[in-house]
Amino acid sequence: MLITNAKIHTMAGDTIDNGWIHIKANKIAAIGSRTDKPIKDEEVLDVHGAGVYPGFIDAHTHLGMWEDGLCFEGDDGNEETDPITPQLRAIDAINPMDRCFSEALAAGITTVVTGPGSANPIGGQLAAMKTAGSRVDDMIVKAPVAMKMALGENPKSVYHGKSQTPSTRMATAALIREELFKAKRYMEDLERSKNDEDFEAPEFDIKSEALLPVLRGETEVHFHAHRSDDIYTAIRIANEFHLNYVIVHGTEGHLIADTLAKEGVRVLAGPYLCDRSKPELKNQTPANPGILSKAGVFTAIITDHPVIPLQYLPTCAALAVREGMDYEEALKAITINPAKICGIDQRVGSIQVGKDADLVIFDSDPLQMTSKPVHVIADGKIML
């Protein structure tokens, strides 16, 4: 396919005012301007000056884990029987037939990170996947993309109701540390057994096995943390174990933005297009992403679907702009920034040769409330 007469917002450099994009084998094969000679003998999609953007990305959702219109039958996001469950994999719970996938795709969101909720201090493995498709295995971009850990009210509220640890923030942090120490010892014993024939390998431990990539820095940790003290606890634990980490939500990040910038913390900011439904959200504000970004914190915007339906991700970016975020930074916060934060930018997040042909086309400002995509292209196929 050849897309012509396009204003290409690459999110990787300058905008091409009158350009073309050649798609071949589901990838972006070439990009050019009107001064170049376009590829011949291809199906042509003339967009008549419309803006072409990378497919939007939401880096924190529970898509397919809490199914639309269902209660317990479709609730597969929290295993509330054990506070430590690193061995759980989102890919085993996602229902790609949930209609919210098609609603997200129609709004131009072509990639999401989805996974367990925040009931458990260690909840399980998140997956990055496309919103187009019908089989999870074929939709995966990267799995696991991160390990979910949670601090603050959610774990203590869930297990306090069961008269079980953790019922305090101290216990939540202690459980995470305990499991990381166990996994570290397990890793050391495995290595020793490989090098010392007289040393017996440890008995297989699926929880420790799941945490090995985390301890090696191969898999990120996504820490659920709203309050500033919980954010600092996440940083403390991450530094103790040399974890590659990201703060998810960061609701009070705007209160400590300069410190987060100095620490090099990355934040997936949101949701904020919702009410302050619990005490730790009392300082929630849609100005948060802009304040973080201007302070030098690498920031992406998230919906936390189904807290905010995924199709309103561009609306969340628009609200951030209204409250002070730079417009281009807001676009980056739903395209290249989440891709870089989640380590999937080699495939998605910008319009560059070799990347997946995931594109969304608007004939108006994509961050206007009244705007809808005129076309959505996923893996080189026109979906809308």
From TrEMBL:
What are the UniProt keywords, alphabetically? Hydrolase
Residues in domain Amidohydrolase-related? 52-382
Enzyme class, top EC level, equals hydrolase
EC number(s) from the headed UniProt entry: 3.5.2.7
Please list the GO terms describing molecular function: imidazolonepropionase activity
Pfam families recorded: Amidohydro_1 (PF01979)
CDD domains noted in UniProt: Met_dep_hydrolase_C
Instruction: Tell me if NAD is a UniProt keyword of this record.
Output: no
Q: Which InterPro entries match?
A: Amidohydro-rel (IPR006680), Metal-dep_hydrolase_composite (IPR011059), Metal_Hydrolase (IPR032466), Metallo-dep_Hydrolase (IPR051781)
In terms of superkingdom, the source organism counts as: Bacteria
* Record PANTHER family: ALPHA-D-RIBOSE 1-METHYLPHOSPHONATE 5-TRIPHOSPHATE DIPHOSPHATASE
**Which named protein is this?**
Imidazolonepropionase
- Organism expressing this protein natively: Caproiciproducens galactitolivorans
